[in-house]
Design goal:
Blueprint: E1 2-5, H1 7-17, H2 21-28, H3 32-40, H4 47-57, E2 65-68
Antiparallel strand pairs: 1-2
Helix pairs in contact: 1-3, 2-3
Amino acid sequence: MARYFSGRRLREARRLAGISPEQLAISVGRSAYSIHEYELGRVTPPITVLASIADTLGRPVDDLLTEEEAHAA
C-alpha cells in the first residue's frame, strides 16, 4: 500500500506541539504560506522539508503520512 503526505496530520501534529504556522515556517526555512498550503493538502513538501518538519515537531515522518488504497477503474 502506498503512503501519502497528509496535511491534516501535519496540522494536528503542529497544534499538539503548540507551534504556530509562523514558528514552524521559520524553523524549517519556508514561508507561513507554504505551511498553510501543506496543511490544506494543496502542496506536498519535498522530502527534505518533510523530514525537517517532523524533526521540529518531534515526530517521525511516518506520523505525517497516511495510507490510501488505489481503486481500480
